[in-house]
Amino acid sequence: MTTRTRSxxxxxxxxxxxxxxxxxxGYRGASLAAVAERVGLTQQGLLxxxxxxxxxxxxxxxxxxxxxxVPNTQWxxxxxxxxxxYNAMRPGIIQTFSALLGESVTEGHPAREFFTQRYAAVRAxxxxxxxxxxxxxxxxxxTPERAAPLLVAVMDGLQYQWLLDPESVDMPGAFRDFLTxxxxxxxxxxxxxxxxxxxxxxx
Length: 203
What we know:
Number of helices: 9
Largest sheet: none
């Protein structure tokens, strides 16, 4: 085994340990010392691989995204359901992601830029998925660009509910229900120009 290979394996081990510590304590509560202890290193030894806590965080986030990596041209609506089902099998990873996402909305958090850019890319990707499935308009009348943020919000929002109460929340089932809603035609009285759209006293 070469020195480079050993170094890469050690970095991967540190990232896995950091995932565990962040899932347990959150980013702000996770210390480099705790991560180092989990992999049998001194803090100085860990700093040889990741010079700052922020550098380790970025590595953790990139590693997590690699597990879900599928070329944008290969995503389909049915594959999104498979992804939700897969996520239900790995609560530790989802807990880590959700904890970091929740913390990242605070000012100055080192993951804020990562998640901001990630969500912009994910919304664009989901719009492409919806366009490939439905064309320029979904059956409910929304454009793919308007529906994409809703799709992303449901995926991530279900994760929080499932993490809090997995016995009560069927995450894959609820996501399939949402996809059914996306593909449904709106009731006639919700269409533009219907009587329900008229101001009170008119129509």
